[in-house]
Protein: FAD binding domain protein
Amino acid sequence: MKVSHFFSPLLLAAVLHGGAAHAATSQKVACACQGLPSVVYPKDDSYPNLTTAYWDVRANLSPSCIFLPQSADDVASALRTLHECDSTFAIRGGGHMNFPGSNGIEEGVLVSLEHMNAISYNERTKTVNVAPGARWVDVYTSLDRVGRYTIGGRLKTIGVPGLTLIGGYHYFINKYGFTMDNVVSYEAVLGNGTKVVASRTSHPDLFWGLKGSANNLALVTNFEFSTYPIARLSTTIQTFADDEIENFLDATVDFLKKSDSSVGAGGIFTISLNSSTGLFSASLLGAQEGTSSPPSKFGSFSRLNATLRRNAVLRPVEWHSQFDTPFQAQRIQFVSHTMKPSKTQLRYLYREWRKAILDIGDVQGLYGTFVVNLTPKSAIAVGKRNGVGNLWEDALDEEDLLIWQFATSWAAASDDLRMSAWSETLAARLHAENRAKDLAHPLLYMGDAGEFQNPFQTFFSANTLRRLRKIRKEYDPVLVFTRNVWGGFKMGF
Structure:
């Protein structure tokens, strides 16, 4: 029987072209794998562990080979090879972003930076140099020896590059700004394999461009961070039963409105459904610089009836080491939006999420969390006034903002599409309702967003995008980090 009986000539041409394109791509990847030294292939014993070093099971992909550089020179050589072969590749630091493809790849080359994990403190400059394979608990452990602290990840296993390159939320952003605002210099490798140092005085355009652009411009091989003489934290862990949840939300808004730059203080504010018991509860993980206990900035929560209230003065590394996101724990979908602070509307969002999460109670392994991330105006002011800025500056006024996020996990791959659609649809409806009430804000933090959202399209200003594309034209004219690194949030052409 003739093929033309089943396929039109145009469709047949498309199928043949698709096969040819895949073969060409495979040849480019094979060129890179063969040209890189000491790569790991699917047949190797270490391959399974390397391809499952993600906390979101959905992110497990199957690269054709994995390259583990030991130094910036290794990275530079690898990027020259990848560029010459025109191979697709992904970059993984600590795997901070969770969705599939953001730091992994199917069939391409995975550049995994885990062996580049050196950390060194400079006593003269009071800065710490951190390689891109380090995790924040490693940084805090190193700084603990000299009684210093920096503005990094709140959970211990979060990777340094992922958090830093997308902005970075920490407990003390109200005083010290976002993680990106605390970077003194970047050592980076460009798409053609050239090594550069970006700082206020060296390549200052790239220095600015790396503050919030994720993986769109270069591969950073060293971050130099400011550090602070903070040897102790006043901490609080508080939990609340269902009947206090809406009061908990009110207290969260009060905390935001009272935030200023006098004392570093912040928290992680969550409401969770235990699908096994059907019960909802709220929790606060709070930290404040200093040794006064309980931490004074959390007074609005102290007035609530808590099921647990534990205050302690701890070294930073002791505090951060308690909280983890283990590898392969779950399948999880994020989605988030931002609003101006309103107690009434935040209560409404919570009630709508609560009804919606109960409607999908049949999903195997369901665990739902309503997360509030606070962005005080004093945090925004740091980047606007430090003489450097960041990619957010044009899109943000100095005003208090509140990010609301749904973090929903489940067990079975068969529910992936259902859960993504549920998350996207519910969040879009509530964001639209906020917009109709003039309460919505375009801030979209990459670390809290779903893969169907894109901060470059919806948050960054037109002026920022023009400036960023000009920088890309200067430092990556052939678009290696746009065409060949396709994962994560991209600024487009």
